[in-house]
């Protein structure tokens, strides 16, 4: 919803989930007894599935997506009743809103005075006095700012997962939810097929290193700019780093391309300790050896 993508994309994402089997209960459940356990981030997983689906439909190699956008413009000019999704117009709309949102966030962060939420007091006896003084100081600051006409410090609001609004007047831009994905399909015989046949991906070999295992900083200059912009969009929406989203994309691609069957979480089996022989067993062995030697 917040990425302003077409509603028809949901069906393709569901197919990717079925193919990768990422919707299984065992994969979405946190298991602390697993060998390599980690708390699942469902929002990052959903973003990775959307990005993989976008790569399947538009390839996102800085070439094919713009050709498909020109094809969508031609379809929209011929038939204005049915709106075909144009990636270029979607990119221009979301890119402007994303830049403005980042600027607002930086300005709010610069104007915000960093102070503790709770007052600091040396003893419990002075608690009421310190809190009362702090309230008086804050009220005086607010009144002086209003009288002087300076910008009022933004109040700390509760975190919200929605950053953009699309479709209505006074929002961040037009909505693309009702647009159709006609430009990415071509009809052959009776069933429609994807016009994009090829798919690119980074190295899928798992690297057991201290970082995310994808060498994102080394690979980042070679990645297509459209793909990098899409990573930046979802990382801004989720409040995580782009490397985290890229690592989850590689995980989904590993399951999609290699077809790795999911066998559940591997638990560590405890090592069996060898039973130590008691003294009586050792004596019996010595006795048996002496008997055989005398015979």
Automatic annotation (TrEMBL):
InterPro entries: Rrn7_cyclin_C, TAF1B/Rrn7. Residues 1-147 form the Rrn7/TAF1B C-terminal cyclin domain. GO terms for cellular component: RNA polymerase I core factor complex; RNA polymerase transcription factor SL1 complex. One of its GO terms (molecular function) is RNA polymerase I core promoter sequence-specific DNA binding. Keywords: DNA-binding, Metal-binding, Nucleus, Transcription, Transcription regulation, Zinc, Zinc-finger. One of its GO terms (biological process) is nucleolar large rRNA transcription by RNA polymerase I. It is found in: Nucleus, Nucleolus. Its main location: nucleus. Belongs to the RRN7/TAF1B family. This is Rrn7/TAF1B C-terminal cyclin domain-containing protein.
């Amino acid at each position: 919803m917040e990425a302003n993508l077409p509603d028809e994309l949901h069906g393709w994402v569901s197919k990717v989930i079925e193919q990768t089997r990422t919707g299984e209960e065992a994969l979405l459940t946190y298991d602390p007894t697993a060998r390599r356990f980690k708390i699942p981030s469902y929002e990052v997983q959903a973003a990775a599935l959307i990005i993989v689906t976008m790569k399947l439909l538009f390839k996102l190699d800085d070439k094919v997506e713009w050709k498909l956008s020109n094809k969508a413009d031609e379809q929209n000019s011929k038939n204005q009743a049915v709106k075909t999704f144009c990636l270029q117009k979607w990119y221009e709309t979301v890119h402007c809103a994303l830049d403005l949102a980042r600027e607002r966030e930086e300005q709010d962060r610069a104007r915000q005075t960093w102070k503790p939420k709770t007052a600091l007091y040396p003893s419990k006896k002075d608690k009421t006095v310190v809190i009362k003084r702090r309230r008086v100081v804050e009220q005086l600051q607010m009144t002086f700012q209003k009288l002087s006409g300076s910008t009022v410090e933004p109040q700390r609001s509760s975190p919200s997962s929605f950053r953009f609004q699309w479709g209505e007047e006074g929002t961040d831009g037009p909505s693309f939810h009702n647009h159709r994905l006609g430009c990415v399909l071509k009809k052959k015989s009776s069933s429609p097929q994807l016009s994009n046949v090829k798919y690119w991906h980074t190295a899928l070999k798992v690297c057991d290193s201290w970082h995310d295992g994808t060498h994102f900083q080394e690979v980042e200059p070679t990645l297509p700019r459209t793909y990098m912009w899409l990573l930046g969009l979802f990382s801004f929406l989720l409040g995580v780093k782009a490397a985290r989203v890229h690592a989850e994309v590689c995980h989904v691609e590993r399951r999609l391309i290699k077809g790795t069957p999911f066998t559940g979480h591997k638990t560590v089996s405890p090592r069996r300790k060898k039973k130590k022989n008691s003294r009586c067993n050792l004596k019996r062995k010595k006795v048996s050896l002496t008997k055989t030697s005398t015979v």
